[in-house]
Amino acid sequence: xxxxxxxxxxKLIGIIFITALTVLLxxxxxxxxxxxxxxxxxxxxxxxxxxDIIASNSTAALIYDDPKLAEENLSTLRAETDITAAALYDxxxxxxxxxxxxxxxxxxxxxxxxxxxxxxxxxLVLFDPVVQGSNRVGTLYIRSxxxxxxxxxxxxxxxxxCVLIGAVTLAFLLSNFLQRQISQPIINxxxxxxxxxxxxxxxVRAPKxxxxxxxxxxxxxxxxxxxxxxxxxxxxxxxxxxRVVADSAPVLIWIAxxxxxxxxxxxxxLNFVGRPMAxxxxxxxxxxxxPDDRQACLETLAASYGQRRYFRLECRLRRNDxxxxxxxxxxxxxxxxxxxxxxxxxxxxxxxxxxxxxAVRLSELQLRLVTDHASVFMCQIDRExxxxxxxxxxxxxxxxxxxxxxxxxxxxxxxxxxxGMIRERLEAALGGARQEFEIELxxxxxxxxxxxxxxxxxxxxxxxxxxxxxxLSDITERQRASLELERARDEAVNASRAKDDFLxxxxxxxxxxxxxxxxxxxxxxxxxxxxxxxxEDFETIRKNVELEARLIDDLLDLTRITNxxxxxxxxxxxxxxxxxxxxxxxxxxxxxxxxxLVMELAAGRPVVRGDPxxxxxxxxxxxxxxxxxxxxxxxxxxxxxxxxGRGTFVLRVTDTGIGITPSELGHIFDAFVQGEHAxxxxxxxxxxxxxxxxxxxxxxxxxxxxxxxxxEGRNRGSTFLIELPLDVVADNGQDGRGAPGDxxxxxxxxxAAEAAGPQRSILLVEDHSPTRVALVRLLQxxxxxxxxxxxAAEARKVAQAEKIDIVISDIGLPDASGYDLMAELEERHNxxxxxxxxxxxxxxxxRSRSTGFAVHLMKPVSMLALDAAIAxxxxxxxxx
Length: 880
Known about the structure:
Blueprint: H1 8-57, H2 59-63, H3 67-75, E1 83-89, E2 95-99, E3 116-119, E4 123-132, E5 135-145, H4 147-199, H5 212-248, E6 252-256, E7 262-265, H6 267-273, H7 277-280, H8 294-307, E8 311-318, E9 324-336, E10 339-349, H9 351-373, E11 377-382, E12 387-390, H10 392-397, H11 402-405, H12 410-414, H13 416-430, E13 435-443, E14 447-459, E15 465-474, H14 476-511, H15 514-525, H16 532-562, E16 571-574, H17 575-584, H18 587-592, E17 596-600, E18 607-610, H19 612-628, E19 635-641, E20 648-655, H20 662-665, H21 683-686, H22 692-702, E21 706-710, E22 718-725, E23 760-765, H23 769-781, E24 784-789, H24 792-801, E25 806-809, H25 818-829, E26 832-837, H26 842-850, E27 853-858, H27 863-873, H28 875-879
Parallel strand pairs: 17-19, 23-24, 23-25, 25-26, 26-27
Antiparallel strand pairs: 1-2, 1-5, 3-4, 4-5, 6-7, 6-10, 8-9, 9-10, 11-12, 11-15, 13-14, 14-15, 16-18, 19-20, 20-22, 21-22
Helix pairs in contact: 1-4, 4-5, 14-16, 15-16, 15-23, 16-22, 17-19, 19-22, 24-25
């Protein structure tokens, strides 16, 4: 236990006892040290004196080299019981004589040490010089045991200890007796103070038992109690008044003592928490605090108590209904008689204010989040053209923080040039007119930038414009992208036009050389004057030329579909008629390979809306593949149906051919894909580029239909399903288109023999010499008088000089366009013509008809097609 906590009696006894003990112990230690040093000095002095005598007597022994005399001198040490060893060293430092004589040399120093004495724990050693006059002739070594010295000191210490114990005992007895004279009056005062504290009875007085100082203290203590008694009465009245006022106040009031424990709460507090005073005093009130607020609240209280200073905090307190309410708590230190007496404080319910503040902060936070993270630059400008607010994006645009811009003039930030360009708009907005515009500004730090600006007037009280809110978007990249997009679009249009021109030129150049071949082959193939073998050879030529033309058409069709330039001439179509026409194109191959054809057409005449030419192209592709991939004496089944309730027409083509593997099914409608059978040298077995089905799928999709393939695997045959929507507005009694082609097309007539009748004249305009020569011969065989022109200029001269019935002209002429030539001939001479060209897009066909061509034939053309075209243009020829 600390001495400060001991009773005063023990403190006095302890003080007296410790003081006496300290003095005695100090005296004991001083005497003991003194005796030790005195004994050591006496021993040293005695050893030196003895050494000087023996050294003086040993001089002769060393000078005359008499060891015996030296040993006799050393043997005189026998009378000194404390001497344990001695030796005499000669001038060279070697041992000359020892004592006792039996002492081995190893027990002695090998050489003499420094002159003088040296103490160790148990021994005292002396090295004393042996001299003759001023010459040193040797050294004396003596070693003495200190045991005798220690024994003397021990006896002396025991005597002193006995004296010390007696003195301590006497001091304890005296202190125990004397302390009562001092402690009893103080104990009486303490007992009186205890009674006053415990009983709160300030009428108790301390008895006076002595005079002088302690008597004065007792009188002063009793006078103080009397004064406290009077003050307590006054304070009681004051506290009663305070409690009446505090209980009437509409706030929570509390009082705490010096130990931070609560001592009192007003009625408003007790009613608020719904607990009695006994549950709140001390630390009971802490139970009402929100768990998350307790630590911070108690730490604030502790800090305020430690520094005796005012505090203010916000915390949540549980109300009697269980709801935690936010309180603003304030506390200040209170003093009584100038002494710190604790704290007094009050609490006000601020929950409603907190909720309102939270809503405002949330709104401000949301606004700040929106403005700071907006992709636009936002600011607020007052009537003096100063920034009052900028969002973070606006500030970062100038590599600043918002606080660096707020308060500065607009001109300082954006630069004088940009400010001059927007000033008029700014003034208009401050005048109350909303402004929205796009402008390219020249900033002092950002350079030239395109911006989209909105100025919205900000009106204050009475509708007066106090400033503007500006929302600015940097549209520089958009403007650049727009310009780049326009440039790219122009380039794309030019590239597309160049590609179209290239494809048209390519088609023309590829088809033109085939034209005379096909003309001559088709004419000779139907010429009865030729032998069957020769006609068969020409028929082979015709088939291969038509196949080559078909490949060119497929390439061009795929390009048109891919670029979205395929135009359908939609109309109501008798779909069965289209199927039959497609079948007619493959009947020859079916017969030559003895492939059985089975037709299972649905009842009625289903009508779909579509382009009959393109639909026949789809059906022909599917039928051609079925025949091509079916072995001789195989079977092809063509079946149609109109499923009930679906509103569609379904064509099913099934063959017994080589079939389709599962891996091929996934890519069978992709362009340039021919399947596994075409790998290696297999592609030459069936031919083709792998475009037919790709084009067919695109054409079917353009008709809002679908096409699919099915097969059980290699050599198990295959089935193709084409489904097209029926034309719901078509009249079932009305005939659809029975044959593919445009409205002006006719079925091809057989090859004309050399016709009789009146001779008609034809103007042939063709710059390709082989085509021109072949056509002249073939037309002359058909009783036509042919006028030939290689250029548009020559054609104009012939038309001007001769009577012409029909014009057959190429489109691509050396000196002009066939379109322009035909338009001129129709206007001046009322002539109709046939376009015979390698250009065959929908645009080419439409343009040829608009300029006077009645029929548009695309090279290579057969003589059968040309005969039909001539018949279309000139009914007189048809009659002949």
